[in-house]
Specification:
single chain, alpha/beta, four-stranded antiparallel beta sheet
């Protein structure tokens, strides 16, 4: 690896780098105190005792020396300058948009929003839950369907999930056929096909403009408007689909639905699409919020997350994730979807775009985009150019026999990208940013002079019968924040309801809630990165291509793999891509029959769900009492299924928070039987610089850039889940139909809609690696291991640590076992989680991977003062539990069972509890200096599921 552009940090006082010393929270002196508490005098001795020698790498990281923040940003500006930002009128599901400054600054660039975690603890997530409920309301209203989820990864994967949902509700046992209209986005067609192949589903594309062809289908996918721009009445073909017992899926443009009849009113069962054009920049393909909405009767099978309304302990309305156990990945091998994340930050932006503009503003934007398209069509016709479709919304398809390339080149010379549909046709997509000057330039590219007709009044280009008549966005939230002052305060009010990393540590096990440094985040909103269309000519994205290539190289070096693909836009999609690579490899060797995937019982639920989606049969391998893979059971399962063994999926370090000594034996046994080893990279934060999965026996891993490599969680997305593979699997990495450069010709097809997935946030991980350098990356890993063992040492006397490795050490996280405490006192792990809110903390991971426990991961970024503040809170809570045990607190009426406590309940005249208000609110003196007040009390989950409400409730619901 060369990397000559890097220069070492000059200061001799910082052998790692100045940035690394700020990223790793504890100072050298504090780390020495932590090591002493664990029983070690030096970090090398701890690492030697914690990390098995069998997995340790003998080769230091061959990465460029660390850059300072200034130098890293200078290098990123250099890369950004190699991108050429033209006005893109390409369409293909991606459109120019203007992000209101108040949303850009106060959501996208605000750590109060982007450092939050998925709202599994709803009491400290009311702000983003309200924003997501707004998003669901926007989607449900515009699509005309009653229930929408809280976002999908992108439009292509949403369509693939809709295919699976349509098959599921059809109750057919055979795979069957899924029919796709030929005017569907090409990337969507191929993502659907990639997902269909391992499930045995046949995908048939056809021109559905004249109705359905003969045949039996369980579902039909229609694009509205079509890729070509055509607007057609979908009702007849949907009726035909229903007559044949098929479900109708419509991929719809949300902005178009402000003017056009919504899919639900045409009979659609499912609507999918993207909210990108609601204020979210291109980002060279992402991240953007996909969406899915469904009709009555199938909402309980909806994939992804669903925000609903319930009540808290005082009967006040409160938001929470509805039907939470319905999250498919939790069902492991019985799952029908592996989605465990979404695009929350982008859904929040899109929802706030709707709040900012309101229904009238959205309609005005849509009318303006439509007018520009109509002006172009009128000008082309006046100049003798054939316009293919009479009815369109914002996209015009022009027929220019043999001249498409010439027209596209002429437009490019005028600063505009058009879409060459083929040698004879050019597509022109208008949007919020299209100006009259763009109309003139486009016409000139066709050799047409703008006429008075184009510049004057033009008729609407869609029939009155398809005009939308039904109201939408009638809830007060879409009318109340018209001034920027009001909008700013609304965003601040929501932010203040939540706990994110800007307020306190988030000790969630298996989630790696580490620092998302400002310098890493800054380039994301630079126009040279944000405003590049994913299908712009590649020479306009030279900086992106170089950055992506360098990042993939760095990740390959860190993991020990031969090749990396960054296309998967979530960890779950990385899992699927890795398993499809394994599937492709076996097929290339004539071993298609290998379809058994071994998965330890401790694995994350997405592993089993992904295996099912990859067409594999899941066989669970037991774990022993120490939390390790039971080698006896492993060998028995290999013996039983050896000739059909495709792979084993194992997380390392394990989900139990330990370095398993037997991992190399596990890898060897699977390889000997002809299988492949998939090491889930969710816990890579404990390996970087110390061990490489590609060296100790793994064939493929997905990495979570939103964990180990500092992309923020965004309240539940975005994420990036690239996969690394050894050389023999490289031919089976993801590919893309519109970008040959995005993957091998022999690839498995696209996993994500965009060629390089969520490319817009890849500068974050690039910057992290560049500024940490090889020594800093290793120091971060060591810091994570030291922090987890320090917490285990301090908390161990109060809460048993469930699993430890050799020498009684843990990896980068530990599990506090409350099951005996619960049995003796009735105080549950959930009670402790809710009580931590009163102490100002987000709870650790609750009851995963073991029910009745708390999994704690401090990360390397938290300093000793914050670690001690968390330990002090947990120890004080243990003292409160002892008071319950000895009768000092009533078994039911105590600060834990009643937690969390709002300011409202404390000032109530009706305080009848046997403990004081001060004990409830200020159990530690330090809380008087900075107190977080939860907006609601403990939420009744069951009530919300029994009374499912998943769009904005009326204001009266919040009245006393």
């Amino acid at each position: 690896m060369t990397g000559q552009f890097f220069a070492p940090v000059a200061s001799p006082q910082h052998p790692r780098s100045a940035f690394a010393d700020r990223h790793v929270g504890p100072s050298a002196a504090d780390q020495a105190r932590m090591l002493a508490a664990i029983g070690y005098s030096g970090i090398e001795a701890l690492i030697d005792d914690a990390v098995p020698a069998a997995i340790r790498t003998s080769r230091p990281l061959d990465l460029p020396p660390a850059l300072s923040e200034t130098a890293a940003l200078d290098r990123l500006r250099e890369l950004a300058s190699r991108n050429t930002v033209l006005t893109s009128m390409i369409g293909l599901g991606y459109h120019g948009t203007t992000t209101p400054g108040v949303i850009m600054r106060n959501v996208l660039e605000n750590p109060g929003w982007y450092t939050a975690y998925t709202p599994y603890q709803p009491e400290i997530s009311q702000g983003r839950l309200e924003a997501l409920l707004n998003f669901q309301t926007v989607v449900a209203d515009l699509t005309g369907l009653p229930v929408a989820n809280a976002s999908m990864l992108d439009e292509g994967t949403a369509a693939a999930e809709a295919m699976a949902l349509a098959h599921r509700v059809s109750k057919r046992k055979e795979p069957g056929t899924f029919l796709v209209d030929g005017d569907t986005l090409p990337q969507t067609i191929e993502v659907v096909r990639t997902r269909a192949i391992p499930l045995g589903i046949e995908v048939v594309t056809a021109d559905l403009s004249a109705g359905l062809p003969d045949g039996d289908f369980f579902g039909v996918l229609l694009q509205y408007p079509g890729t070509s721009g055509a607007v057609r009445d979908l009702e007849p073909v949907i009726a035909q689909a229903h007559e044949r017992g098929a479900r109708a899926v419509v991929a719809a443009d949300l902005l178009a639905l402000t003017l056009l009849r919504p899919p639900g009113e045409s009979g659609a069962d499912i609507a999918v699409g993207s909210a990108q054009r609601f204020g979210v920049p291109y980002g060279f393909g992402g991240p953007h919020a996909g969406y899915m909405a469904v009709g009555e009767g199938i909402q309980r099978q909806l994939p992804g997350r669903l925000v609903g309304v319930s009540v808290d302990a005082d009967g006040a309305a409160a938001y929470r994730l509805a039907l939470q156990t319905r999250e498919q990945h939790i069902r492991r091998e019985k799952a029908t979807s592996n989605i465990c994340t979404a695009q929350v930050l982008l859904a929040v932006m899109a929802s706030m775009y709707a709040v900012y503009h309101g229904p009238e503003g959205l309609a005005a934007i849509a009318q303006r985009a439509h007018r520009r398209a109509a002006e172009i069509a009128a000008g082309l016709r006046a100049g003798g150019v054939e316009v293919v479709h009479e009815a369109f919304f914002d996209t015009v398809l022009a027929r220019v026999p043999g001249r498409a390339a010439e027209v596209v080149a002429a437009a490019r010379d005028r600063g505009i990208n058009l879409r060459p549909a083929d040698a004879d046709h050019v597509g022109i997509a208008c949007d919020e940013t299209t100006l009259p000057a763009h109309v003139t330039a486009v016409l000139e590219a066709f050799g047409v002079t703008a006429s008075g007709e184009a510049a004057g009044e033009v008729a609407e280009a869609f029939p009155d019968a398809l005009r939308r008549e039904s109201p939408y966005l009638t809830h007060p939230v879409f009318h109340a924040h018209r001034s920027e002052t009001a909008m700013l305060r609304y965003l601040r009010r929501l932010q203040d309801k939540d706990i994110a990393l800007d307020r306190s540590m988030i000790p969630l096990g298996s989630c790696t809630m580490k620092l998302n440094a400002t310098a890493e985040m800054e380039p994301v909103t630079w126009p040279e990165f944000a405003d590049v269309h994913p299908f712009a000519p590649l020479d306009q994205a030279a900086g992106y291509v170089e950055l992506i290539g360098e990042l993939e190289e760095y990740l390959a070096e860190i993991t020990g793999y031969a090749k990396v693909s960054v296309q998967p836009n979530a960890g779950s999609q990385g899992e699927l891509a890795g398993l499809l690579a394994i599937r492709g490899y076996h097929a290339s060797r004539g071993e298609e029959h290998r379809d058994v995937c071994l998965i330890p019982s401790s694995a994350h639920g997405t592993n089993a769900a992904s295996a099912v989606m990859a067409g594999m049969r899941v066989v669970v391998v037991r774990c022993d009492e120490g939390g390790n893979v039971d080698l006896g059971d492993l060998h028995a399962k290999i013996g039983k299924h050896g000739d059909r063994l495709a792979a084993i999926m194992v997380t390392y370090p394990s989900t139990h928070g330990v370095f398993e000594e037997s991992i190399t034996d596990v890898c060897a046994a699977v390889h000997e039987a002809g299988g492949q080893v998939y090491v889930d990279g969710a816990n890579l934060n404990a390996l970087v610089g110390l061990a490489r999965p590609g060296e100790f026996g793994s064939d493929v891993s997905h990495l979570n850039l939103h964990k180990t490599f500092c992309i923020p969680h965004g309240g539940g997305g975005p994420g990036v889940g690239p996969i690394g593979v050894r050389a023999h699997l490289a031919p089976f990495l993801p590919s893309h139909p519109l970008r040959a450069e995005a993957g091998p010709e022999t690839g498995v097809g696209p996993i994500s809609a965009a060629p390089w997935g969520s490319a817009g946030i890849l500068p974050i991980s690039w910057a992290y690696i560049a500024m940490m350098g090889p020594d800093g990356l290793r120091a971060a890993t060591e810091g994570a291991i030291v922090g987890a063992n320090y917490l285990a040492a301090r908390l161990g006397p109060h809460y048993p640590i469930l699993y430890t490795g050799r020498n009684g050490l843990v990896a980068h996280e530990c599990i506090a076992d409350l099951r005996k405490i619960t049995k003796e006192t009735g105080i549950t792990a959930e009670d402790v989680a809710k009580r931590l809110i009163d102490y100002g903390f987000h709870a650790p991971t609750l009851s995963f991977p073991v029910a009745g426990t708390l999994m704690i991961e401090p990360t390397e970024s938290e300093d000793l003062a914050e670690l001690d503040r968390f330990c002090d809170a947990m120890i004080e809570i243990r003292r409160e539990i002892r008071r319950v045990a000895d009768g000092g607190y009533d078994a039911e009426d105590n600060p834990l069972k009643n937690a969390p406590h709002t300011a409202g309940c404390l000032i109530s005249d009706d305080w009848k509890h046997a403990y004081t208000r001060e004990e409830a609110a200020y159990p530690l003196p330090s809380l008087r200096e900075a107190k977080y007040w939860p907006p609601v009390r403990r939420i009744d989950q069951a009530y919300g599921d029994r009374n499912l409400v998943c769009s904005c409730p009326p204001p009266e619901a919040f009245e006393d």
